[in-house]
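If your schedule permits, I should be very grateful for your opinion on a structural question. I have a record of one protein: its chain in single-letter code and its fold written as C-alpha cells. Kindly check, if you would, that the fold set down in the C-alpha cells agrees with what the sequence suggests. I remain grateful for any guidance, and I place the record below:

***
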Amino acid sequence: MRILIIEDEDKAADYLRQGLTESGYVVDRASTGIDGFHLALQTDYSLILLDVNLPIMDGWEVLELIRKRKQTRVIMLTSHGRLEEKVRGFEMGADDYLVKPFQFPELLARIRTLLRRGETVTVNDSLQVADLELDPSGHKAYRNGQRIDLTSKEFALLHLLMRRRGEVLTRTEITSLIWDMNFDCDTNVVEVAIRRLRVKIDEPFKQRLIHTIRGVGYTLEIRK
C-alpha cells in the first residue's frame, strides 16, 4: 500500500517515512501543500498523512482541494489539540486527526484501522480458539461447551480478538474498532471491557486465552 506524507519539517517527515517503510508501506513525501496536492491527484494513494501547518498552502486548503476530487483517506497531523480544530477537520472530510507529539505505534494503529475500512468481513463463520467457540450469526459464545452471556460490546471485542488471534491489538486500535473513532481515548473503557471479558471467558477455566502485552496492548492466543 502506498502512503503520501505531506510534511514540511524534514526531521518529522524522515521519522514517519522510516517507520512506515519498515512497516511495509511504500512512502512518498511532499514538503509543500501545493506539491502534495499535485501528487495526491497523480497517484492513487491508500492514505495521506497531512500536516496542518504547511507553507504557502496550509493543510486545510489541501484537504479541501483533495476532497473536491478524491475520497482518499486522510489523517491530519497538527501540534494543536483544540476541539474546534478537530471538529473543523472532520467537517472538512478528514478521516482522523492526530496531535503532535505522538507515539508511532498509535499512528500505525490508526492507519491500519482506516485501511481496513471498507474491507469485507465474513461474520457468519464460527470461530474457535482452544475450547472457546464463537458463533457470530447467532451471537453466541461457548467455553468448554458452556454458554457464556456477553453484552454487545463484550461480544464485539471477543469477536475482534478471535478473528485476529495471535495479533497484538493496541488500546487505540481496539477503541477505534469497537467504539466510535472519536471516543475519548483518555478513558479506561478498553481496560474495563477486557477485565469483564476475562472474568467470563478466562477466570472460570484452567487455560487463559487473553493476554496483556505490557505497554502495547492485548492478544488472544493459546500459550503453553
User: Anything to note?
Assistant: The helical segments are 10-22, 33-42, 59-69, 83-91, 104-116, 152-163, 171-178, 189-201. Residues 113 and 119 are 11 Å apart (CA to CA). Residues 2-116 form a domain with the Rossmann fold fold (CATH 3.40.50.2300).
